[in-house]
Amino acid sequence: MAKILRCSDLGMNCPKEIRAATEEELLKLAAEHAEKDHGIPVASIPPEIQAMVKAAIREE
Ligand SMILES: [Zn+2]
After folding, report:
1. How far is ligand 1, taken at its centre, from the CA of residue 33, in Å?
2. How big, in percent rounded to 5, are the helix, strand and coil portions of the chain?
3. How far apart are the first and last CA of the chain?
4. Which residues are within 5 Å of ligand 1 (an ion), measured at CB?
5. pLDDT tens for each residue of 7-26
6. What global pTM score does this model have?
7. Distance 1 CA to ligand 1 centre (A)
8. Residue 50: phi, psi to the nearest 5?
9. Do the Cβ atoms of 56 and 10 come closer than 8 Å?
10. Could you tell me the distance, in angstroms and rounded to a whole number, from the CA of residue 16 to the centre of ligand 1?
């Protein structure tokens, strides 16, 4: 079973779909994607947005 996060679910105009086996890994990949492709440093993301990201994670 995989966990999936779609960037578009977070209101981004982005087709990226991030998949990982665990939530920890998924959040790590999402952080890398946000920083690399959206120029959003993870340290600047407020807790309420982090909670939104976690809530947007889907199980496959
Ligand atoms: Zn994206």
Report:
1. 6
2. 55, 15, 30
3. 6
4. 7, 12, 14, 16
5. 999 999 999 999 999 999 99
6. 0.88
7. 22
8. -60, -40
9. yes
10. 5
